[in-house]
Amino acid sequence: MTSLDTATIVRLSDRHPRLTGDEMLASLVPPPQFGSATFETYRADAAYPSQQEAKEHLQRFATGGTQSVARGGLFSFGRRKRSAEPEMKPGVYLDGGFGVGKTHLLAAIYHAMPAQRKYFGSFIEFTSLVGALGYQNTVQLLTGSALLCIDEFELDDPGDTMVMTRLLGELVKTGTRLAATSNTPPNALGEGRFAAQDFLREIQSMSASFETIRIDGVDFRQRSLDGGAVVLEEDAYESALGSVGAPISDDGFDELVDHLADVHPSRYIRLVDGVAAVGLRDVRQLTDQSQALRFVAFVDRVYDAQIPVRATGIPLDAVFSEEMLRGGYRKKYLRAISLLIASTHA
């Protein structure tokens, strides 16, 4: 029996959040931790010159400046021969490992671009918007927007490939500019996950809209933390949760993982709405890929909301099996591990 004050406890597995299309659209803004992110607050690591080069280039992109060729051939900003075409491609694509500040720079673009209609969301949020409103309604709603910022661009199935390439293609034709982040270059999206060759034309079409900017570096979260995820014994777990504030969530790991299958990933942010800390009991290693990917999406939303996590069982940085870490979603899992370590130390 828990010694926690039951009046301050919520169970995420009892929550069944709903989001209307209008609510989804209104929520397409940078998450709280990047609510005031600017180029000035981005701290480039001097050991990796591509970070400063990316920052300077993206400042020009956000304010409509002219592109230039960077040293070292990292960027290929070829001018088009036809004068009727714009000098810049309509999109920038930030490619690099997790924890090098891509999302910060993406939010900085959003804040720096002088436009009334602009949207910032995860890849899942944009595909969910299409699912909720229908394709044509989504196109009509987003047409006329100056900027779309898409964080963690991933093509995990052919359906998403088709939807996003069509959507972005239509919006680009009407003048919308694009900025996206991913751990995978645009011409390699979907690689190792589905028959990418069957969708090569669609992937290349999308890639043609972006200028790829490579950002090197090491995970800033690991630079400031020692060791792995914090794991707690039962008494310490309850004490740690009780000291955070209220309300707090307290769920069995298996119960939460099962519940995530019944909630669309676009609504995960509402699962943790108003929660001061997330508590997970009896964490175990995941071996089912669908469960693991849903948990990754959940971790993203928890981290975006800057909610600390307290857990018992195995350390959360060991939640993904070795087989998963060798597979096509390796970078997704490694990024989630980085977020989990930081969240358990928060």
From TrEMBL:
GO terms for cellular component: cytoplasm. Keywords: ATP-binding, Cell cycle, Cell division, Nucleotide-binding. GO terms for molecular function: ATP binding; ATP hydrolysis activity. Gene3D superfamilies: P-loop containing nucleotide triphosphate hydrolases. GO terms for biological process: cell division. It holds the Pfam family AFG1_ATPase. The keyword ATP-binding applies. It comes from the Bacteria. NCBIfam families: ZapE. This is Cell division protein ZapE. It comes from Microbacterium faecale.
